[in-house]
Amino acid sequence: MSVSPFYTRLLSTLSLALLMVVLAACENTQPAETPAEDTADATEEMADEATMPSIVEIALADENFSTLVAALQAGELVETLQGEGPFTVFAPTNAAFEALPEGTLESLLQPENKDQLVGILTYHVVSGKAMAADVVGMSEAATIQGAAVPIAVDGETVNVGEATVVTADVEASNGVIHVIDTVLLPPSDM
C-alpha cells in the first residue's frame, strides 16, 4: 500500500507538532529557580500565621476585651470573626465600653436590641488586613456594617471616627486588631 505525498507531509507535520508540545511540556515541568532564602521566608511566614491565634482567641485571652467578647457573643458574631477573613478590627477596650452613657451597654446586650448591637459591632470591622502603615494612608475605611468610618492622622496619632488607636498591629491568623479607646457608633446610631 502506497501512502500519498499529502499524507506523508501531514504525518511529518503532526509528528513535529507533537514533538514541540512534548518539549514545551518538559520545559514547563522544571521547577522555577527561587532563592532558598525566599522559600524559607515564605515557609516561615505561613507557619507563623498557622500558629497565630485568631482575632477572637486574642480577645478571649485579654481581660481588657471581656466586654467586647460579651458583646460579640450577644450579637452572635464570634463565629464570623473566627472565620478565615482576613479582617481588620478596631477593638474597643472595656474602658471604652464603660465610657458609653449609663445604661447603653446593658440596653444593647438585650435580645430585642440585637440588630442595633450587630450594627455597632460590624462598624468596627473592615474586610481585609489593613496594617497601621496602610491605615495612615486612608481617609476612610468601608466597614462590613456598610458605612465608611473616617480616618484622620495627626502626627503620631491615628483617629478612627471619634476613637484614637492606642495599640496598632496586633496580628492574628485571620487579620489584625487595632485597639481603640472609644466605641464607634455608625452614623445612623449617633
What does this structure look like?
- This protein is of the alpha+beta class.
- It is globular and about 40 Å long.
- Strand 6 and strand 7 form a beta hairpin.
- The chain starts with a helix and ends in a 10-residue tail after the last strand.
- Helices cover 44% and strands 21% of the residues.
- Strands 2-1-7-6-5-4-3 form a 7-stranded mixed beta sheet.
Proportion in β-strands: 15-25%
> So how many helices?
9
Biggest sheet, spatial arrangement of strands: 2-1-7-6-5-4-3
Question: Could you describe the largest sheet, including whether it forms a barrel?
Answer: 7 strands, mixed
How many DSSP-defined strands?
7
Q: Specify the structural class.
A: alpha+beta
Mean pLDDT: 81
Distance between the termini: 92 Å
Morphology:
globular
* Unreliable spans: 1-34
Order of helices and strands: HHHHHEHHHEHEEEEE
Query: How much helical structure, as a percent, in the residues?
Result: 40-55%
Tell me the Rg in angstroms: 27 Å
Keyphrases for this structure?
single chain, 190 residues, alpha+beta, seven-stranded mixed beta sheet, globular
